[in-house]
Queue: 4 jobs
Job 1
Amino acid sequence: MISSKNNMNPTPPRGWVNRREFLRISSGAAAAMLLSETSCDGEKASPLAKSSQNWVTIIPKMQRPNILWVSCEDISPDLGCYGDSYAVTPNIDRLAAQGVRYSKVYAHAGVCAPVRSGIITGMYPTTIGTHHMRCKGVPPAYVKCFSEYLRAAGYYCTNNAKTDYQFAPPMTAWDQSSRKAHWRNRAKGQPFFAVINLGVSHESRNWPKKGEKLVHDPAKAVVPPYYPDTPVVRKNLARYYDNVTKMDEQAGKILQQLEDDGLADNTIVWFWGDHGRGLPRGKRWIYDSGIHIPLVIRVPEKLRKLAMPKEPDAVKPGTVNDDLIAFIDFAPTMLSLAGVKIPKHIQGKAFIGSQKAKAREYIFAARDRMDEAYDLIRAVRDKRYKYIRNYMPYVTRGQNIEYMNRMPTMQEMRRLNAEGKLKGPQMQYFEETKPVEELYDTLNDPHEVRNLADEPRYRGVLERMRKVHAKWVKETDDIGLIPEPEFDEMKRPGGQWQKTAEPQFTPFIGGPAVAIACPTPGASITYRISGRSKTGWKLYAEPMLLKLDQVLHAKACRIGFKDSNEVKFKLGDSVTRAPEAETIPHWKEQLDKTDLLKRLRKIKDLDGLGKKAIPRYIEALNDKYGSVRYWAVVGLHNNCKSSSDIKRTKAALRKALKDPAAIVRIAAAHALCDWGQEKEALPVLAKALRDKTDKARLYAIIALNKIGEKARPALAQIRAGLKDKDNYVQRVTRATLKRLESR
């Protein structure tokens, strides 16, 4: 308790509270509290309250190791330490010799933003609504960046400098996030978690440069069977390996900095890549070429018992670990190493540290919208077999993505396909449709080019993996089947962003202590105190002591919301409680009250049934949910093959042209245009190009692109898409105009 001699205000101003009320507020409404012997400012403060909401729990008397992440972009395990003789990676090879090389680590997606969303939160993007590329998610209130838990535990957390989380990084996530961020900026003796991301191996670096000289000999490149073996492809592979070597050099310099600072013996080092090669059928895909990544962890000798309490030798130099590890396991593993209790909502499993979990049996992956191209694919993998479920089997793998098409190998593949010169596995990418299910024996078929799903002797494996997939989809509340325009309206009705409420101050009568709370569920608070030498913004985690000449500044944030206004407080100020802002019910809360996901799973169980499913699709056109009606229209479009089936379905789809859901109208118009009813259906697509929802406009321009020449009467409306505020709509518009105006 603070003694009476420290009481600066014998007559408390209006709004000050007694100790009992202070305890209630600071342990409940504040939500962001963890009290220790030392306040966030480093000044001694009595433990006035404890968090009743378990925002973060620190394991006491536990050593806090430094942790360094060296991450890189767009590489598979194409390193010397993984047995690749074409690679030149001496620094990472040396790191692997000093630590553990993990052989079976997999991303949950094949592209950076969904991947990083899962890494930073420890949750599947398909659960928290961050699965579509560049989607500006609004995760549930309990979701936080794991670095925030580390900061609350006393870590200095820096990120240099990529975020790409599918949401703006909250100001509470990092002490510093910039190209100048470095562990060297921390307070003396403070443990650190530092991320340094290397972008030299990014996909865009594999585009040709004028006058470039390659170090790797293209003639010695190993060409995967799904690529044509041509000079263009070999040169592209050599360029990729050159970039991996440059990345290795940069990694070596970072590791040398750690040595120069005398920190190597106190720092656990991770090296990892964010997903597979930035080349066709690698990046964006959930074949192993897109999700199998390198992970090397070096644990200094003095920290091995901390990393593996029961088996310290499991992380000794030169070890190879073949446990299945998923990217969403990174966050809980970091908390496990740092002595922070893993929150229950986190879906990943710690694979080292005091909270190490049982090894995985399966990893899971997802592909959703990639830039301007929609697809919906899920995968399950054990140590040997990969199961893939294609929820849009009618869509070719070879969809056009403007950014991806800049790659020389992609251009070469398209050229040779147009000329009819591809053969064998090279043709798979351009097949008009995909099978509903794929199954691969990755031991005997590491490139995943022989689909075993229809082979009787693998029926048992197929059924087992199918059940595991279905269970995962249900248990994780996979929302991928909700069409994006519908989901966008759920997460931000009317396209309006919510704003985090202003923080509120609660001073304590018995002394100059102040708590801060925010009425917005899930909000985090950052603060600074003017009148001190260090005025940077800090994460609020406990009440603090103020002096009379100091001003407390605070802001609040929540992932997916706009930040609050800055507010100020000094001792003696009266405190008034602002009325709580009206909060729109979160999409997850709304969804949990419905049976929408169950009904979506049910209608997608019809995939692969062909003509037998038509009556059930027609019945589903009257479903109460627009998302279900959408998939019913899509099912009819792709399963009505005979003239008689089309004839009996046309009337139902004409009715759907007036459906209240834009996605249903667009899907019905697309189908009717394909069936020769452009006169009444094309105006519906043209009108949808002006829809207030950007993803509805994207659906419409994609449909216009696919109907080809039939879209010509709407050319003027299509041209207007070049000025659309959505970049993806612009991209598909350019592709559509190129197709129509070249004739």
Job 2
Amino acid sequence: MDRNTLTGLLLMTIILIGFSFYMQPSESELQQLQKQEDSIKAAKADSSNTIAIDTIDQKSESSIVKLDTSNVLSAATAGKEELVVIENEKIKATISTKGGSIVAVELKEYKTWDKKPLFLFDQKDSKFNLSYTVGNDLINTSDLYFQKIGSSFEVLKQDSNTLTMRLASKTGQYLDFVYTLKGDSYLIDFDIKSEGMNNIISNNTGYYDLSWHVNSLKNEKDMKLERNNTTIYYKYDKDDVDYISPTNSENIKLESSIKWASFKQHFFSSVLIADETFSNGVINTNIDLSSDKVKDMTMNLSIPIKRLPSESFGMNFYFGPNQYHILAAAGNNLEKQINLGWGPLKYINRYAVIPIFNSLEKMNLNYGIIILILTIILKLVLSPLTYRSYLSTAKMRILKPEMDEIKAKVGDDDQTKLQQEYMKLYKKAGVNPLGGCVPLLLQMPILFAFFFFFPSSIELRQQSFLWVGDLSTYDAIFSWGEIPIISYIYGNHVSLMCILMTASTLIYTRLNNQISGATGQMKWMGYLMPIVFMGVLNNVAAGLNYYYFVANMMTFGQQWLIRKFVDDSKLHKQIQENKKKPASAKKSKFQQKLEDMQREREKQLKAKK
């Protein structure tokens, strides 16, 4: 492995290691997060104004909510909770007459990692509230009993149905929560309608304050990985999509108009989308490392009150998978919740990898076979670069004896002069010293693009292949308890796909060393990187390690085939003939830079004398 190739691989290793450590909190950060959580809990216990998240018992008897509110809503303070279910082929939403809101959502097409029904949130760990002022009293809809207009229903295909929850006053004014569900959809149309509320809402109240809290449930195998992929995403009306860092507990004030906000989990999302915009808001996430829930998240959004006799504010809930084409079809850039990488990587995934992957899906093949075909396509596209890289490396190997002679003659003391002599040799021989490195660097964005694509792909979730039960997570063949340092760096298990990837990379390194003629320290450093990769990739999706393993095996095949067509003796003869030709007067940028450095060095030496 030559110096330039090693430099490229080292850069890739550093980025991967940095990304791995960046995406997980340090020990001090974890301790700080725990302190924040303890402080929040203490504050909640001491504060008389904090709203508690009530546990709803479906079998509870009639109850009376004690509120210091005006008489116009006194009838709504007492009642019996009823649960109404609306569903289609994809989702099942449970709506409570207490608060009139959705208290649980099940995705019918999916299961949890341990094959149980998959809920985005349930009745114990969610709360939806709309607050406003009547007289001197703050009204919280989550404390009041709504009248249901309609009953449980199920819709299919193109059918639709509506359920209304009404909060009525004694004097005839009312506030409606209207839910409309169509068949075969992850969207629930949600409208807040009011009639005559302008007569009872306090004149100094300009907004309804909408608060939605969810303590997200564990649906995936790896709690740490799920936490690192769960956070709040949001979109300003005139700006791009943004989010809270998944590894932090954070509170953010949203100053301008907001189009939507989302409780984004690893593979699923609960999104609230305004037909127009929310005026402003506050969002916050909190991580409790001792909890069996993934993350505590809250969004507070302001809905403008126009003070008209009849008003309506339209919204949509999205409860569904983080699947690129489904989110894109829902509009409003919801697909940007999927982490496809930074810079050019996301464009490679968006415009190349995903379309090819989706086309292969239509063939109804096993996803392991789809990854194999995807890899074959990729290697064929990159084969010209692979050929050029091999050819350049072979030329450098052939020139190595002459380079050693130059080094013995010039010595190691003057590196600038040594490089100049090397460049003269390269120029005479017609060899580009970066010819082996540049093709590798051009391939790196694609390698990194897959690093983001596979862990984010819900298509791989719970898809089996050979011994792998789920391509979207690691394939542990052996696990153990918590071991200091080892568990933090490597994990608590051994992933077989990661072992195969590491073994194939070591073999690939050995073959590269044979091609390049690497010796000494350069040779053995090449073997260190696969070991580093093993620690980094042991906890990632088995589909990613499988891709790297297959790519390595195909590279072996490509190199074997190339060696059949590349004759080293003919290549050596061509280099010697090139050296006999008159040297070109044109200098490369690299050579010119070396000469400039040499002149500058000579000036400095003269100045010292």
Job 3
Amino acid sequence: MFDLEEELKKLPACPGVYIMRDKNDTVIYVGKAVVLKNRVRQYFQNSRNHTGKIRRMVENIDHFEYIITDSEIEALVLESNLIKEYSPKYNTMLKDDKAYPYIKVTVNEAYPRVLFSRSMKRDKAKYYGPYPSVTAVKDTLELLRKIYKIRTCNRSLPADIGKERPCLYYHIGQCDAPCQGFISGEEYRTSINLAMDFLEGNYAAVEKMLKERMSKASESLEFEKAAQARDLLESVRLIASKQKITNTDLEDRDIVAFARDKDEAVVQLFFIRGGKLIGRDHFHMSGVEDETDSQVITSFIKQFYAGTPYIPKEIYLGAETEEAELITEWLSRLRGQKVHLKVPKRGEKEKLVSLAQKNARLVLNQDIEKIRKEEARTTGALREMAEYLSLPMIDRIESYDISNTSGFETVGSMVVYEKGRPKKADYRKFRIKTITGPDDYASMYELLSRRFIHGQQELIKLNESKTDASLGSFTRYPDLILIDGGKGQVNAVLKALSELDISIAVCGMVKDDKHRTRGLYYNGQELPIDKSSELFKLITRIQDETHRFAIEYHRSLRKKRQVHSILDDISSIGPARRRALMKHFGSLDALKAADIEELMKIPSMNRRAAEEVYEFFHQTESSSETPVQ
């Protein structure tokens, strides 16, 4: 039993991270503290100075835990990681989890390559970016191949020179084939240096080269080559036109500003690399209603830069950050060099921040109605459901269904919704083991018993290891269980939960004679639902998804059973040959149509086995009886 007063007395006077959990052991808030003892106590003292969000959070705290750290900056790093892992309900959350592509130049190789990269690693390569879109990267790479004829293969050069024939890129004029020794290392390195100049924004050199190439080809009456040079020149000018010069100091910097409306905010981010605006993006944040501008922008910086591999030298902000010195130190450590956070008040830099803010406001105005509709159909519907069932709150729902065909291959499905959206990573499938025949009640009892026994066993292991590292879908208990069925199925679930001493609300999703949702069976009675409400629509989505998941699993097992039952009747065909046959032919129809010679092409088959397979299917086809599946 968690004794709040006793646990508050045990809090240490050192930096660390505190984790607030509700009665279902769900993490609802993560924070950091310079002195844990002082910070955590503040939540449970007079609430008059607390914001509405903090008061609601404190009301839902069942227990807390904490992790001490050696310094405040370590606490900041840990806080960012835990917020990203748990997505706590009462933290201000960055909704978008975007990754930006890079262009990677393998300068450590004798014959470097210019490649697309999803991440920036700490290796000896040189990276350019991040770029705002995959298309921009691919267009640039294609242009560089055409202009500088840089290799894309994975051959180890110069060790593999001359060992294999040149690839297609050589034959279409987009590679100088260093793999054949057709270009020296020095000449190739010159091409790479020119490509790197291009990536750094030096377009004048390549434009001059292409103009000369076009002019020379025209004078020689090589009009096809002249046209190619002209097209490349247009491509260079197009890429150059998309990059706006912002200043002449050639620094890398990000511009961060935001606009807000009630509980939502949009953050606009401009990427400036080498003094040029190479792209922009926006991010949605939720839970900002009771936050100051400083708190909103601080939350964004912590969550965004904890997940991006590139930190620019300067970050211009539309508002001051909380704990500016601490965050500056953290970002500087991530970058490996000093990072500067600035809030410009005048001049060109202030105009850039203002422009970012205007863009954020534009996006917010465009998206606010869409955001509110999405909120109504997800978390809004959950609030409606909690009020309808007289529950304090609903965040996680688990929905279950049973599927069989006259008792054949009975299976169960577990579908999970969090914050009103499907969480497919937590979906689970079950094959019913102890029940024979079409007994949905007993099958549902087995399904729920196994699910929560498994959860209890995982929780015991986690408590013994004293870590959350392997926290899985079974250890997280739902706020509500939905069952595709009525009174009988609900009672079977309640019996399973009671035997395990688990208390969770259980509802049956009742359908009418036309298999359409008509209401909920809860606490011994059927409750009608307004069919125009978001609650009804959410329940219908969950019911359809649960049914789909169960049916698909059952169908896949039935299909495998049909294939396996036929092939298992052939004495010389064991598991290995069966897999090889199905992998090679893909279907029973293709297997039946194969002759003996074709069957023998499979490495694991000999003539005796091939003849037996052939005779089995052709004898079966000539028989008047249908083989038992």
Job 4
Amino acid sequence: MDRNSIIGLGLIFVILITFAYVNQPSQAELDAAKRRQDSIALVRAQTDSAAVMVAQAAQKAELEVPKTIDSVAKMNSFGSFAAFTEGNETFTTLENEELKVDVTNKGGRIYKVELKKYKRADGSPLVLVDGGDNDFSYGFATRDAKAIATKDLYFTPQLAADGKSLSMFVKLADNQFIEHKIALNANNNLVDFKINLVGMDAVIAPNNNFLDLVWKQNVLQQEKTHDAEAKTSTIYYRYPNEDPEYLAETKDLKEEVKTPIQWISFKQQYFNASLIGAQNFDNATLESKSDENKKFVKFLSANIGLSYTHNNNESYGMQFYFGPNHYKTLKALDVSLEKVVPMGWGIFGWVNKLLTVNVFYFLGQYLGNFGIVILLLTVIVKTILFPLVYRSYLSSAKMRVLKPEIDEIKEKYGNDLTKVQQENMKIYRKAGVNPMGGCLPMLLQMPILIAMFQFFPSAFELRQKAFLWSSDLSSYDSILNLGFNVPFYGDHVSLFTLLMTVSTLVYTMYNNQMTGVTGQMKIISYVMPVMFLGFFNNYASGLTYYYFLSNLFTIGQQLLIRTFVDDSALHKQIQENKKKPVTKSKFQAKLEEMAKKRGFDPDKMGK
């Protein structure tokens, strides 16, 4: 670059510096510019704040409009009760030695009931009533045509100082309120529940003469086998001063009871939840439904009518029973609630009530092992029946001694059945032998056998009581799970059922040898025990254990009797009896009367 160029650039640089210096803003101009910038920032901030406030206001309006609409809707639906339809659900717990009861403020009802002394089959706490799976509420119409249900209302709880009772209130005014009073009894399974309506006659419609009480429960499974529990779960109810009735257990039913009833019981296999009125309930509609999905055992419900007489102060007293189907415990309540325990009808029921229950109750107080209790019960029963067993054996022995003579008559007269019968009757009459003598004692034992069949599957005392390989005498004992289902048998092998079947076959074989049974009857006698193998495989192991012991004792008794009953001496005695004048028994007289009606005279036999 030459000298002239350098001089030119220098002059330009000097000119630019001079221009910048001359034109720079004064301090006053700088202060004014700063004030303008601060004003612009403030305006922008105010604008943004206003926009936020507008947005928030719009959002709040959006929220408040539905709330306003909802409030209006609630006022339209619930009238003066609208304020009690909003709240947060809270729980209050009442507890004694037997029960733990949770009460919810929503509906002022019992929400959950735990039986503290018992467990489910899986070992978890036994909850008989659980939360949303049940309902207990009542409804009425108001004078301004509102339909009110207590399940929609939030009550205010007031717990007593002792913690054993609780009052739940819906107060429209100091002298106008609904109260639910819930109290636990000291050491039992009863819960008092009282409804007080104070001043509600000014609210409830004058044509509303009943409170519609709804009690619903989805029955929870407590035992090992769902199907067995479902088959024994239903609704029992009792008319005043009559025996209880019930809905059939094996099908869905709905029944209207149009006359007063004393109590209603939601009965399961080993437990029940029952509602007992201080005064009789006016009427009820009862329904029992099965659960196809098997989440619950059954759906049970009762719609109960409570008479409302429009007095200023009306009360409805009632008690809940939450507890086991223990015969003695229920009988102590003195309202026939023990009838929910199936004892059998007629003579079978009397055997269980007078003998079995008392033996179990007495021995159970001193022995903790119910396998031993069943053994001692078997000893008692077989001792009582021993005279019948002896007479049965003796009669069979007489028939066995006479069998050669009976066979001779059959061979002599061949197919002439009338003549064979005449000659047989002649021998029986002379020998003093009753051909039915072996059957009658066995028939007299049947009521006890059938009574035990009724008792054991419902005996609460056996529930979850282990013995030998059986973990629960109230259910089947399984020594082998097959992994697949065998028709008419099941998916497991019950050892007590096998032992019962084998002992029955041994007894049948021994009995057939003594009585000389042949032909079709002999085949049937062996087929029946095998059929029972499948039938009893799913039954309570306590029952099959009892039948096994009963068979062993019967075989032992017959072997004992055989040692001091001499067939030759018995034959000699029969021959001596033939020489004596014939004394007709009532049975023989009846046989002869029947023979005469058929056209022959027993008195002329052999002449």
